[in-house]
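Re: beginner question about structure tokens

> Can someone show what the tokenized structure looks like for a real chain? I only ever see the sequence side.

Sure, here's an example I had lying around. Input first:
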Amino acid sequence: LQPKANTELSYLAVIDRTDEITLTQVNWTDVDYYVYPKKETPVIGVPIQGEAWKGSDTAITDQAAVKKWSESFKIPGLVSPVQYTPVTINKESTAEGTVYVVQLLAYNPTDKRESVPEFSLDGKGGGKVFSGSRVEKDAVVLEGKAEKYIHYAIPTDQDTVLQSLNLLTPETFAEAGAAGVSVLNYKVGRLNILLPGEAPGTSFTAYTLGAPIRFDERSQLIHPDLSVSVIEYYLHENTEDGNKNVTAKFKLTNKSSKPLAVPVFQADLVSKDGYEYAGSRQQIQTASVLPSSSLTVSYSFTLPVSEKGEGLVLKVQDAVTAAPYKTTIAAVSTGLQEANKDEWSLYPFTVKVKNWTLNSDYGQATQYQYVYRLKLDLDITRDEQVQLDASFPNLLVELYDSYDRLVGTGRANLYGSSRLVNGDNIISLTGASDNLDVHHQVRIYEVFATPTGEAKRLLTQYNQ
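And the corresponding structure tokens:
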């Protein structure tokens, strides 16, 4: 021991018995092997009722070692000043199964740099114990007065509901033998952290569309000079696929004097009943936002038909820091927008429809079938501050007959060489019908590419 220092000695006893026993005392005995017979002198006896750790099933009953959720604590037995506060616990369904992700806030109250010591979290629920591990594989270092999130993943059974967490520290036991010194590694429970009586809900702030979102100030994903806001938020029913679709368009504005990288965040929707729906992110080509400029990125969410769209919470998720798991860095709630069939919001574009007509052709050139063209008289305005590229959403036109059968489809762009312009525009529809139908329905969608396929939002529906 160094002067004015302390250490902890860990002793391991292997007891070859199958019945349930309880250890009550540990004795320190001085043994003199240099006399015959050897002489044993008791030095001290320490009561250990309820103190011995018998493995992962051991219950931690010491009230000083039981912590409530959100209560800050230090880890007993470790010479470390770092303080920890449980922040969130989320249940995720992954390809490998169900995982609880626990987020702790580590804080260094000293003026010196400190490393976060090794420890682990186990989940307890349903009479079972589930081992967890730290998501961050590299060493976590805290500067003086600094704080940082650390994350633990606890794989569980699908229907498991955790009631508490055990915090364990690694220990080693060295034993000398004929073959040399063997070292056994094991863990000892230090604290029990109680979880809330019911699963913690998603806390959110009331939000106004177009206002900057306030993110967790400890998150490093969103640059402080990058303002992020929700500029469009619509829901429509997709009768063909038997679901509903929500589209949220985010506006990213660079307030600095240098280009900023586009952050890759995820977005989820949570219904007022607690159901969570993952969003599909638009595949954009632009890697950075120019100074004093903006960029848009859209997310599409598929919801069941039973979802009314009331009380939805939009969560912005960091899927990088604790990958492959997600952590929430902002959650907002606002009402969905109402679509205007004659004025489409396609930020940074606003498209007003002055008039529309559907024309058909029939003859030998069309193999004696009816083909259709949609004529639109448009008034288009644009916010010039927003960057555009080839990944910007385009328009999809679908034509249905009086029997609700798809007759033809067409495409149009608001960006590029063949874009829609002010005035008259003709959109030719691919497809034909053998019979002339005087009643048609025109559906126009905004569409954009995502990793899971093409997402679309219904802009308007015209009946002829």
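Each token stands for a local structural state, so reading them left to right follows the chain. The CA atoms of residues 54 and 188 lie 9 Å apart.
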